[in-house]
Amino acid sequence: MRSIAGWFLVVLGLTGFGVEIDNLRRGTTDTTVMGLILATVFVLGGRALIRAAKRAKLPAGPAEALAVAQLPTLSPRDIERAVLNCAKQHGGRVTIAEVAAESSLSFTEAKTVLEDLSRAGACTVDVTDQGAFIYEFSGLMPREP
Length: 145
Prior knowledge:
By secondary structure, the chain is mainly alpha-helical. The chain has helices at 2-26, 32-57, 62-68, 76-89, 96-102, 107-119, and strands at 93-95, 124-127, 133-136. Strands 1-3-2 form a three-stranded antiparallel β-sheet.
């Protein structure tokens, strides 16, 4: 409905511009300034209504879309299994970023899970010279012959 009203105002405003230009051409300029101002108001008001109608039809923004279509929550067992699978694929040594990149976990979730596994004794933590935390799962590292 807003869109129809907006287009009506735009057409009315453009018609007003045409009438006032015709009045200028004829030399009757008594109300030309007021007519041009009114025509401008009609065109701008109509344009605002059209834009508001388009905005109302747009899909939800990214944050709202995620709230509507959330990923299914994983059980703690599934989360641990995903982290252990990632560690197994990397020879028993992983970083937080690797776990986050290769699973459905966020960076902070991956960090929390790895810290919990470290406290439980499932892995040890090594810090590189650059300050990266490497979590080592000795049970998943390749066995030496």
